Amino acid sequence: MTSIEKALRMAAETHEGQYRKDSTKDRKVPYITHPVMCAFILRQHGFADEVVAAALVHDVLEDTSISEEAMRLALGNKVTDLVLMVTYDPALSWEEQRVAYIQKLRAAPAEAKAISVADKIHNAQSLLDAHAIQGPAIWAHFTRPKEKKLWFEGEMLAMLQETWKHPLVDEYAALYEQMKQLD
Questions:
Q1: Residues 63, 95, 96, 129: which is the catalytic one?
Q2: I want to staple 85 with a disulfide (CB 3.0 to 4.6 A). Which of 24, 92, 112, 170 is the partner?
Q3: What is residue 30's three-state secondary structure?
């Protein structure tokens, strides 16, 4: 079994029963669509199997009961190390988590930046699609108001533009501009 298949199985099992924030009572979006789309974005840009596998499980340590040790056993050190680079510190407040995340990624290798920006791209695409359906009510699905979300997105984008030249950063920049226009 390949690292991608192992990661996909872990993601599907651990995210079972979870739904995306843009879900409504009439339109439930299974969470697994998010890591699959992140992996798809990275595969389209030619990233290695371990990077694609890490994208598939990038939220597992944050959002499920799987431990770092269990992930290392199942997927190896490279995949797990990449996941840790894109995982928020739960001991910090929301704002502190975001600042620490940006600083961690500033020094991270390109593979970790790629996973993070694929995550941000898919989240932005989902937000824009949901806004087209739900309008400004979409912002109520998040733990922080629109202004805070856009602050974080802008800070992430600035860091990526300073530290990593890649077409994915340009794609994220275009999506960020669209998000800023939302009501």
A1: 63
A2: 112
A3: strand
What is the enclosing helix (H) or strand (E) of 57?
Answer: none
- Least Cα distance to 74 among 139, 133, 5 occurs for 5
* pTM: predicted TM-score of the whole model, two decimal places: 0.96
Active site annotation includes 62: yes
- Known active-site residue 68: no
> All domains of the chain, ordered by start, with CATH?
3-180 (1.10.3210.10)
pLDDT (tens, 9 = 90+) of the chain, 183 residues, equals 899 999 999 999 999 999 998 887 888 999 999 999 999 999 999 999 999 999 999 999 999 999 999 999 999 999 999 999 999 999 999 999 999 999 999 999 999 999 999 999 999 999 999 999 899 999 988 889 999 999 999 999 999 999 999 999 999 999 999 999 999
Residues in the chain: 183
How far is C-alpha 154 from the geometric centre of its chain's CA atoms?
Answer: 15
Name the phi and psi angles at 86, rounded to 5.
Answer: -115, 25
Options 62, 68, 81, 155, the catalytic residue: 62
Can you read off the two tokens belonging to residue 13? 């099992």
